[in-house]
Design goal:
It is built from ten helices and 15 strands. It is α/β, with parallel strands linked by helices. The strands form three sheets. Strands 7, 8, 9, 10, 11, 12, 13, 14 and 15 form a nine-stranded parallel beta sheet that branches.
């Protein structure tokens, strides 16, 4: 349920109404926008009488929200959310490019890639320390050593780091990671999502391989319901019947999410198709669709990569892509971080 407040509503009046509602067993999410101020009611609101609410002097209107996701809902939060990560704001007109290798393989590899993507204008450095793989015999990442190398790359380049968490038991190890990524396979790991909700860390939540948009928003709701408002959504392609590409990029997810939610959404064109030459055209499509950023895999020697080399750009290709991205982002009226 949403309560739309009158423009002249005073702070004491709002506080008094909120106290009355909390006594009736609902939580309050207050949103002050440029056009209007809202009180979003979370919980069982079936027992609340709309006429009783409308009779309050500061209430302009009352509306019920049918969607199961409340805090992620744009009707609860009309203004776009921007997520702060190590001094970088993602969303609300600020365009981010997160780039780096699929997996951290060595200090030399990571530092070379990190320096290259920074020089090309990347916002953040990505790199997998822990790698969930389909085969138990595939490279699983350097794990905690990989985290140490990411910290070293951040010290050398100044780029905030983004890396994937596998379990809620790892939260202490990820305490100084700038953006914690939840991979597609863990999108509905609800124990992990609940623990991340208790954190204040920015969370990059990837859409599952076969998940609907509503299911992605419900996973975000778990994090938001825990008190963590710093959620970035990531469309990375879904599994379909098509065999010529790795995944099918659902570009329609961007305008749909923008219409339904206030959360920033970025596109991962590398995982979408799984083919390096397709990254640039999919990146251009993402910008045109209104995405708030890109996540690009870059490797200093893709042919020798231990993970996902076929979809990785080399530094020269990434630099060429960034020149194009810079022009297109400016044309869309956004700022490239």
């Amino acid at each position: 349920m949403i309560i739309i407040l009158k423009p002249q509503a005073g702070e004491q009046q709002i506080r008094a109404l909120a106290q009355q509602l909390e006594q009736r067993g609902v939580a309050i999410h207050y949103s002050q926008g440029t056009q209007e101020s809202l009180m979003g009611l979370v919980g069982d609101t079936t027992h609340l009488d709309e006429d009783w609410l409308r009779a309050n002097d500061i209430v302009a209107d009352v509306r019920r929200v049918s969607e199961p996701y409340k805090l992620a809902n744009r009707r609860f939060h009309p203004e776009d959310t921007h997520v702060q990560a190590a001094g970088k704001a993602i969303g609300e007109g600020a365009f981010a490019v997160i780039a780096g290798p699929c997996s951290v393989e060595s200090e030399a590899q990571l530092l070379e890639v990190a320096s290259a993507v920074k020089a090309s204008g990347a916002t953040c450095l990505r790199g997998g320390a822990f790698k969930p793989r389909t085969s138990p015999y595939s490279f699983q990442g350097l794990e905690n050593q990989g985290l140490e190398l990411l910290r070293e790359a951040r010290r050398v380049t100044g780029l905030p780091i983004v890396t994937e968490i596998m379990s809620e038991t790892q939260l202490d190890d990820f305490a100084d990671v700038d953006i914690i990524q939840v991979g597609a396979r863990n999108m509905q790991n609800f124990r992990l999502l609940k623990e991340l909700g208790r954190s204040k860390k920015p969370i990059l939540l990837k859409r599952g391989l076969s998940a609907t948009i509503e299911e992605l928003l419900m996973s975000a709701e778990y994090i938001l319901a825990g008190g963590n408002e710093n959620v970035i959504l990531c469309e990375r392609g879904i599994r379909t019947f098509e065999k010529m590409i790795r995944n099918n990029l659902d570009i329609s997810a961007v305008p749909v999410i923008k219409a339904k939610s206030h959360l920033p959404v970025i596109i991962d064109p590398s995982h979408a198709a799984g083919i390096a030459w397709m990254v640039a055209p999919l990146a251009r499509t993402a910008i045109a669709a209104g995405a708030d950023g890109l996540m690009i895999e870059v490797h200093n020697n893709p042919k020798a990569a231990l993970c996902d080399g076929a979809q990785s750009l080399n530094p020269a290709q990434f630099d060429e892509l960034m020149a194009d991205v810079r022009r297109r982002v400016a044309f869309e009226g956004k700022t490239l971080l």
